[in-house]
Amino acid sequence: MVHAGSLPPLLAGALGSAVTVWVTFVPCFLWIFLGAPYVEALRGNRALAAALSAITAAVVGVILNLSLWFGAHVIFRHVTDLELGPLHLLRPELTSIDPAATVLSALALLAIFRFKLGLPKTLAGSAALGIAWRLLHG
User: Fold this and answer.
1) CA-CA distance, 108 to 102, in Å (whole number)?
2) Residue 7 near residue 15, CB atoms below 8 Å
3) Which of 2, 26, 80, 117 is the most exposed place for a label (fewest CB within 10 A)?
4) pLDDT above 80 for 3
5) Burial (0-12, 13-18, 19+ Cβ within 10 Å), 101
């Protein structure tokens, strides 16, 4: 067990989480705020515009990959990695589907895309439904 020294554990945890948030997000915001005024000026430069387009495509690919990975691991209880040469494909066991996670995911999709509910409200509603499900079905 790790001790927080002379600080109360709750205060040490709060300070640790604040430092984590600071070092995670502040550099990103600095890059955005310091670089944003120059991005439009760089769009006129063909070579830099092509590089920015490639970076944007790579970021979209990473986000898509993470979305598929998390989605598969939330909906299915058992997911194996199928290796085909350099490719690693997710292979969920169809019999291991989690009905509660599936219904909750479908409700969140409906809330966002059909009813145009904002992300914070959808997250709060999903969290409340997930907690209620756990409390009722342990």
Assistant:
1) 10
2) yes
3) 2
4) no
5) middle
